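quick one
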Amino acid sequence: MKSRIKIIAGPCSAESREQVLETAKALAKTGIYAFRAGLWKPRTRPGMFEGVGSKGLQWLSDVKKETGLKVCCEVATPEHLHQALEAGVDILWIGARTTADPFAVQALADAVKNLDKTPEALLIKNPVNPDVELWAGALERFLNAGIRQIILVHRGFSSYGNQIYRNIPLWHIPIEMKRRFPDIQMLCDPSHMGGKPQLIAPISQQALDLMYDGLMIECHINPDQALSDKAQQITPIQLEKILSHLKVRENSQNQQSLESFRSQIDSLDESLLQIISKRMDVSRQIGDFKQRNNMPVLQSKRYSEIVENRSDLAESLGLDRDFAKSLMEIIHKESVKVQLKQRNEDSNPK
Ligand code: PEP
Ligand code: MN
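structure w/ phosphoenolpyruvate:
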């Protein structure tokens, strides 16, 4: 792995001194940039493992001593932040749930403002919801507090009923952040995005093709026994194998820009198709509803409204009106086809 790429790896949660030290020692051989472990875990549902808390700070300090690795953990309150910096934690990260809460972010930015000792880097994960302004807002709050060593982490966005990813990438959102803040580094967290070991390599490669600056990957010495995010953690050996196969683009400036543009197009096309597929799902539900209520598939008034209204919207977005019209017609035609097929299958069951 080329040195331009920062790899942060370690367990979702610190669970015991042995688990932390063993994982860190195995990872140190891989030449990672920093070791991660969550101490205070924001769990979506009560009753899940909420982390060992400040007890784990000593384990992180032991990792530093015994392996020489930089260490990092999540902070969600000013108290976490003070305790972590006091214990010598080098890098802090703001979790996706915290980024979505401007009060929490402001409290953290205020806490960091007057410190003598600032973290070596502050990582800001994207908010759980796909809101570029919230992510930008969190970044600006820390910039206003005088913090310069900020790195963004794209970990995907919550969505309902998505089957491929645990958190859908929506690549256009980090691309927009990169456009607005070109000098800020961007990492990808394929573990929380994919939610499964087999997606870590392809997502990581996609991120590197988009010229991301690094990866944050969850690694556990014994993933089957993990107390949180068990389904997505990999062993240090698996990590080493994945890293050895990743291709880092280091071409000439021109080729690099071209590849980066192409990867942006690939990723945007992926988002586009995912959105169309979601639209088709809704269209199927409408089909179902119309059938149950004995309504016709095609409702021409609604159709004309869609085409007109979307053409106006497209125009306001700088797109050609006729192009938008044709696009909506193709999509609508497919929706009608899907609904007719569905009706046909329901009235002629096999
Ligand atoms: C984590 O990194 O373990 C974590 C809780 O991440 P996120 O905030 O991205 O859900
Ligand atoms: Mn996790």
